[in-house]
Amino acid sequence: MLYTHATIVTMDSNRTIFEDGAIHVVADKIADIGKTKDLKEKYPNEEETDLTGRIIVPGLISTHMHTAQTLLRGTADDLELVSWLCERIWVLQGNFTAEDGYAAARLSIGEMLKSGTTCFLESMFADRYGFDGLARAVEESGIRGCLGKIVMDIPRYAKDDAWAMHPGLVEDREMSLLGTVDMWEKWNGAANDRICVWFGARTPGGVSDALYKEMTTISKEKGIPITMHCAEVKADRDFFASVSHTPMSYCDSVGLLGESTVLAHMVHLDDSDIKLLAASGTHVAHCPTSNAKLASGLCRVPDLQRAKVNIGLGTDGAPCNNTCDLLQEMKLAAIIHKGATQDPTVVPAESVLEMATINGAKALGLDDKIGSLNIGKKADFVAIDMRKIHLQPWFNPVSAVVYTATGRDVELVVVDGKVVVNNGELVTMDEQEIVREAQKRSKEVVKRAGLDGRVQPIWPVE
């Protein structure tokens, strides 16, 4: 297949942009890329898809999200963090069934695909949500998924007993750590290698030192990557101080730092933490919307960039973002640091597109396969329809994508060489059936959790 007449932002090592460009796809790979005129001459008999007026970018990569939480969108808006987590989200998630987990995964994946995300890192999937259902949803949909299954053995957050987990979410070593290894053996490399299984460790304070060390040992022995929330809120700093550590000195002490680890949020860091991150090659998943909405703070992205720490981008969960649209996340990531530093030149659009593509691929250990449009890499790409009135005019395709486009402007999505979104509609999934199931199951979860009297509008409804 030839995809022709588009503006193509390749994200290759030279950051080449092709005007009137074309991509030649054979099976699941990019076989050629260049100017439309040249490729049409080389492949005169190839079927063609004309993408005049579109911008093509590599498939977007979300390095931090919670698929289960999409079923809980809007259930905990405008709450402070302890109430948000302990009185709403954990209570709701503690009442999930495996069928709810599958419905939530399909809802998340459908939204991600329609808004241009072709690969994601699930950060912490609980056993009760049904890991098989999550993997099956990835397999059926055509998306690429790195699936972190929870690892934990302490049922609280940080060092405060007031931050107690809902009993329905409590897991032990056997269920969490050994259960992840079981799922890795069953699913890793499945779906034409679109599924990777990860350790999704709970935040320090929720995992004993001994379990962290056992996990990191298995990680190195078997090649299972690790993702973990870290230094997200002040309570995390309090925990690290209580054990005479900074965030990264603690992570270093239990073997968490390294090129196969993605740490999410990373708001409350010292200068020494940034040096440890850079020296170890550990990756950061930046989640500006979640950090802002929950008033967690602001990640030191400009400082991390100066230290050459690899930074990806994530939407986090729907209750603390309300969308899985990584294009919207890109805009905030580019803007928020300008206001914080009072410097409009920091974190430019080009840096943010790198976060959402090639940096994300590097964080997931997949930059030899995805993240840029190069000959021999997987055919994962997104076409954004720029012919709409709210997108005109534009002069720089990168700034147009980062500052103007949203997921609703995505027209075509290709993963592994297969079209999964066409004309803005899901090809591999029944959107209306997914929506009906999500509406039904979300109400059932809220009722089962005993929160149907609290998850409702604040203003009177007649």
Automatic annotation (TrEMBL):
Gene3D superfamilies: Metal-dependent hydrolases, Urease, subunit C, domain 1. One of its GO terms (molecular function) is metal ion binding. The keyword Repressor does not apply. Keywords: Hydrolase, Metal-binding, Zinc. Coiled coil: none annotated. Pfam families: Amidohydro_1. It comes from Penicillium arizonense. This is Amidohydrolase-related domain-containing protein. Residues 55-420 form the Amidohydrolase-related domain.
